[in-house]
Amino acid sequence: MKFDLVTLFPGMFSGPFSESIIKKAVEKGLVDIALHNIRDFAFDKHRVTDDYPYGGGAGMVMKVEPLTACLESVKAARPLSKVVLTTPGGRPLSQSLVTELALEDGLIIICGRYEGVDERVREIFVDMEISIGDFVLTGGEPAAVVLVDAVSRHIPGVLGSCESALDDSFCNGLLEYPQYTRPPEFRGLAVPSVLLSGNHLEIKRWRRRESLRRTFLVRPELLDTADLTEEDKQFIRTLRNGGGIQD
Ligand code: ADE
What's the Cα-to-Cα distance from 103 to each of 35, 106, 125, rounded to whole Å? Predict the structure, then answer.
């Protein structure tokens, strides 16, 4: 998977991509991350990349010419990649969108800054606008990090176990069940005995119920679209009636 990050602040990416799983994915050649500094494509004397908005108002707008020159150069090398603009006004990022994006040949991610980009950049280049949540960042760079991270985990070979990405929260439409590792007791808090029982059927059932319980408590709207069995529905009814606290 090829990621091309189009940014005014390439230095913001040196930390996030030089640690842990993404670093290994790059080293293994599974993920290719290239940084493109928009300022390198501003050819006027002062290398200006922003300007005042027509019509007045607060803030600055990213100029069309440097972004166009940068995007045309990147697109020439990556004709198959989709162009994504990170903006709080975009489509909300979700696990299903992440898995969709992971099927692409590559992503060219424009990190929006200031009050946004000149609308003509959108019209000419942008295939999709993506928001990572209903809040406003100082720029699209952290959103690009989130996007690269979330998509990379779905590239075969990036995670240690091929099951890991599929077992995540959201992959089955529910939040993940609680996990424990040794010791069996810590500061008076014991690991649920079923997990030590070796009874795989009971463990599976307990995990499913804990997933349902967490989803019910934290993200109940997910239950409307999750794939639920009759037993799940019965358990949710118990939760709604104030039961299901202890098994
Ligand atoms: N740029 C600023 N805020 C953002 C957000 N919430 N998502 C994506 N890009 C952004």
Answer: 21, 9, 20
What are the residues whose beta carbons fall under 8 Å from the beta carbon of 199, sequence distance 6 or more? Answer: none
Q: How far away, in angstroms, is 212 Cα from ligand 1 center?
A: 31
Domains of the chain: 2-152 (3.40.1280.10), 185-240 (1.10.1270.20)
Paired with 113 in beta bridges are: 139
Atom 2, ligand 1: residue with shortest CA distance:
137
Question: Residue 139: what are its φ and ψ, rounded to 5°?
Answer: -170, 170
Note the pTM of the prediction, 2 decimals: 0.91
Instruction: Report CA(132)–ligand 1 centroid distance (Å).
Output: 6
CB 177, CB 214: distance < 8 Å: yes
Q: What residues are in contact with ligand 1 under a 6 Å CB criterion?
A: 86-88, 112, 131-133, 135-137, 140, 143
A 10 A CB-CB count for 63 gives 18
pLDDT one-digit tens code per residue, 13-58: 999 999 999 999 999 999 999 999 999 999 999 999 999 999 999 9
